[in-house]
């Protein structure tokens, strides 16, 4: 297992920070083309509560984001333009190319990371991504969450797991580095099912991973399930036992970009241990020897 920090230091020679960018996009399971309402755990902000305002030009968003971390980052740091919320390839190839070019020409940007779904990578989009991968390192983050298609239906993901496998293969051909998002603790999932997801991603060839425990945000369909006692959430130790088991399955060169996520405090309903960021980080550092 390689941590993202170590991986980026090896690749770029210094620490890397993310500069979040918001584009004017949505998701096919929100706008009615495949479904409505989005994934049942996802907030109105499309999993990007910390992202910038989409109406601002990309360079303005990046300068603002870099300005916010520059004091702690210091001069010897680089930045990844991070297209974070919603489905950032759910747009025309021309629009995407324009935004990527704007981002990669900003001072300090040394890589691009783009969050999307496997079913939004049509040939025109892949061509744009291939050109971007030729300019600087390109990370494509795929929100898989689970390899189990029944759970996927329950969470209203609106694409089949097979599409993820095909997407990873296509992205690797164009030179992108693939990061997979996985949620542990989805309703009805046993530990074996979670490990099946990890195995499928490793077999598909995912390069990196972002894990998170399921957390419940206000005003989401998941919150209704939670209040109806249809969701059991993981405790901190229990969750990190699962992460440890997942890491044991992954190849040694797998990069762990995130050990767990944390929802926006204002709308977090449960589990409350995820809100104590300092305690969680200390625990991760101790447990995984970071
Ligand atoms: S695809 Fe991503 S951003 Fe869209 S609803 Fe699902 S989790 Fe949210």
Provide the low-confidence segments as ranges: none
Instruction: Tell me the strand percentage band.
Output: 15-25%
The assigned CATH architecture is Alpha-Beta Horseshoe
How would the global form be characterised?
Answer: globular
Which value, in Å, is the CA radius of gyration?
Answer: 18 Å
Instruction: Describe the main β-sheet briefly.
Output: 8 strands, parallel
CATH topology: pyruvate-formate lyase- activating enzyme
Bound molecule kinds, no repeats: iron/sulfur cluster
Fold and architecture overview:
It is a single chain. The protein has 290 residues and is of the alpha/beta class. It has a single domain (2-287), classed as pyruvate-formate lyase- activating enzyme (Alpha-Beta Horseshoe), CATH 3.80.30.30. It is built from ten helices and ten strands. The strands form two sheets. The protein has an eight-stranded parallel β-sheet with strand order 1-9-7-6-5-4-3-2, sandwiched between helices. A two-stranded antiparallel sheet has the order 8-10. Helix 2 (58-73) links the parallel strand 2 and strand 3. It is globular and about 50 Å long. The model has no long low-confidence stretch (mean pLDDT 95). Iron/sulfur cluster binds next to loops.
What's the quick description here?
Helix content is 40%, strand content 19%.
């Amino acid at each position: 297992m390689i941590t993202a920090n170590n991986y980026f230091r090896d690749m770029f020679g210094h620490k890397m920070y993310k500069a979040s960018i918001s584009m004017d996009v949505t998701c096919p399971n929100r706008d009615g083309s495949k479904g409505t309402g989005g994934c049942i755990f996802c907030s109105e902000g499309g999993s990007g509560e910390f992202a910038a305002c989409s109406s601002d030009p990309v360079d303005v968003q990046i300068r603002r984001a870099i300005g916010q971390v520059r004091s702690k980052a210091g001069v010897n740091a680089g930045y990844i333009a991070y297209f974070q919320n919603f489905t950032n390839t759910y747009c025309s190839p021309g629009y995407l190319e324009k935004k990527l070019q704007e981002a990669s020409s900003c001072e300090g940007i040394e890589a691009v990371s783009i969050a999307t779904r496997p079913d939004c990578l049509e040939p025109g989009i892949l061509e744009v991504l291939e050109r971007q991968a030729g300019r600087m390192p390109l990370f494509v983050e795929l929100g898989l969450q689970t390899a189990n298609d029944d759970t996927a239906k329950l969470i209203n993901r609106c694409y089949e797991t097979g599409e993820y496998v095909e997407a990873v293969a296509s992205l690797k051909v164009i030179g992108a580095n693939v990061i997979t998002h996985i949620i542990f603790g989805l309703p009805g999932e046993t530990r074996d099912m979670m490990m099946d997801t990890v195995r499928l991603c490793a077999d598909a060839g995912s390069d990196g991973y972002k894990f998170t425990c399921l957390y419940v945000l206000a005003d989401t369909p998941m919150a209704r399930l939670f209040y109806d006692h249809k969701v059991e959430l993981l405790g901190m130790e229990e969750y990190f036992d699962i992460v440890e088991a997942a890491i044991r399955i992954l190849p040694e060169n797998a990069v762990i970009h995130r050990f767990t996520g944390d929802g926006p405090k204002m709308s977090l309903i449960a589990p409350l241990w995820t809100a104590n960021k300092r305690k969680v980080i200390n625990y991760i550092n101790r447990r995984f020897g970071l």
